[in-house]
Amino acid sequence: MNSWVVATYDSAFGYVSAHGAPLVDLLDPQPGEKIIDLGCGTGALSAEIAARGAEPLGIDGSPALIGQARMLNAGLSFTVGDAGDFTVTEPFDAVASNAALHWMTRDPDAVITRVHAALRPGGRFVAEMGGAGNCAELIAAMQTAWREFGLAEPELPWYFPSPAEYATRLEDGGFTVRLLEYVERPTRMTEGPNGAADWVRVFASGPLNAVPPQAVESLLARINDLAAPALRRESGWMADYVRLRFAAVRKPDSSALTFDMRRPESAHT
């Protein structure tokens, strides 16, 4: 398995090795901390954060998902919001996001800017998303099938950055990257029994909705044929996931840095 890992450690993170650990362990919520779950979906990560004694606020752009999150997690806070322009009334200790940032394709830098604005200096930004090469075989099967059926190239709804690209975005956005992992993670498909076809139905519904209705089933069958040599096993279908996981901290404000340089004794007060 190929992997690309860079890590440094400071008092903001208490782990030794985050590889393979649940995202909530990397986040390490502390009792009383206020934490945003960005792209919260139906609230699974928010519930884990709350179970550690922290106070989550789930934000998602889908009113339907927020409605489900509220029903499934009574007593927790959820709100509809766009990741590229949300605001909060007080600084948060951390922002977490699981399998959501790669759906925020319109302006990834705007998302990082809003996360930065929501955090206190030193606040944590911890997330896992699809990285470059994520679902490459599935996407190739889609694109080939679209061409064979004489359809325009499908408009893919995801943003899968390389580790260097996203680390640069974070640094330019006012963060210090403390850990970044980039790992191939083949994953059993559980979204349906029909392999790549069901994956496309669930995760590429937008491009699929643009296909003439009479061609959909034949197109999906062709996608299965194309993807099967790489992804179908005796034990079932696998998705060729590549994950990018990171932990970063918001850099101190420039005004605070200026103050510290002028008054070194402030570090001891």
Could you write a compact summary of the structure shown?
It is built from ten helices and eleven strands. It has 269 residues and is an alpha/beta fold.
Summarize the structure in words.
- With 269 residues, the chain is α/β, with parallel strands linked by helices.
- The chain has a single domain, classed as Vaccinia Virus protein VP39 (Rossmann fold).
- It is built from 10 helices and 11 strands.
- It has helices at 23-27, 44-51, 63-72, 108-118, 136-148, 163-172, 195-203, 205-209, 216-231, 254-262, and strands at 3-7, 34-38, 55-60, 77-80, 92-98, 119-130, 175-184, 187-188, 232-233, 236-239, 242-250.
- The strands form 2 sheets. An 8-stranded mixed beta sheet has the order 1-7-11-6-5-2-3-4, sandwiched between helices.
- Strand 3 (55-60), helix 3 and strand 4 (77-80) form a beta-alpha-beta unit.
- Helix 5 (136-148) packs antiparallel against helix 9 (216-231) and helix 7 (195-203) crosses helix 9.
- The protein is globular, with a radius of gyration of 21 Å.
- It starts with a strand and ends in a 7-residue tail after the last helix.
- 35% of the residues are buried.
